[in-house]
Design goal:
single chain, alpha+beta, Jelly Rolls, six-stranded antiparallel sheet, three-stranded antiparallel sheet, 11 strands
């Protein structure tokens, strides 16, 4: 019999799952929290498991601040620029990401100031964390500096949107598209291997059930993933304990 702790099928719906402890340090504007950014093809969902705060969002509907408290469930679609605010310093969230594998492949863009977004080389330099600063074993200084630069750009973008409306978003989304275009070569492969594979499996099961064939139920199994290690990844919004990163 296979060991259920090692023989893992694709996670349900090819969803990515991680445990997030939101940064509790202050940005230059005095707000404690994470790095503002936007996802290009993935919906993101939060299940709040501890602490209180909010998620600031900017999109076609304008700027909003949605409260987060234990038990709250919030999600937003691609194109929603978002920033987590750690109100009481203890905000912890289970984060579910659509299209596991694509967020890890870089489907998001940080809201750096516009002059950086216009320069792919400069963007890459400001986005990347040095080798020794990619986990909680580092000082966290590089992640905070990246966050602070993203907050600066977010404030500028919010002001531009208040002044120019939709045109400000169109300009920003254009920058996002130009930055991401060179990175997307393997995204379709990841999508085919994960999300589409999961959907196709359900379609086959429905076709079989229509014929009265429930033989796929003989593949039923139970699986467990151990808690993430103490050494956590320095993410955009906080430190990450990753359960499921890539689609199997």
């Amino acid at each position: 019999m296979p060991d259920p702790s090692t023989e893992l099928p694709p996670f349900p719906g090819a969803v990515g799952l991680s445990h997030l402890r939101v940064y509790d340090s202050e940005a230059p504007d005095g707000v404690r929290g994470g790095t503002p950014h936007v996802h290009s093809v993935c919906t993101e969902a939060y299940v709040v498991i501890g602490g209180r705060g909010a998620v600031q969002t900017l999109g076609p509907e304008g700027f909003r601040e949605t409260p987060l408290e234990p038990g709250a469930f919030v999600w937003f679609t691609p194109g929603t620029i978002h920033r987590l605010v750690n109100g009481d310093g203890r905000l912890e969230i289970l984060v579910m990401m659509q299209n596991a594998g694509l967020p890890e492949a870089g489907d998001m863009v940080i809201t750096f100031p516009s002059e950086i977004l216009d320069d792919a080389t400069a963007y890459a330099q400001h986005h990347a964390l040095p080798e020794g600063e990619r986990t909680t074993l580092g000082t966290g200084d590089a992640a905070r500096a990246r966050r602070d630069l993203g907050v600066e750009g977010f404030a500028r973008l919010r002001a531009s949107h208040e002044r120019d409306g939709r045109a400000a978003l169109e300009h920003f989304y254009g920058q996002v598209g130009r930055l991401l275009a060179p990175r997307t070569a393997d995204w379709k492969t990841r999508f085919e291997a994960g999300p589409r594979r999961a959907v196709d499996a359900t379609a086959r099961q429905l076709d079989a059930l229509r014929r009265g064939d429930a033989s796929h139920l003989l593949d039923a199994s139970v699986h467990r993933i151990a808690p993430p290690p103490d050494e956590r990844r320095m993410g955009c919004c906080g430190t990450l304990g990753v359960y499921v990163a890539d689609a199997a």
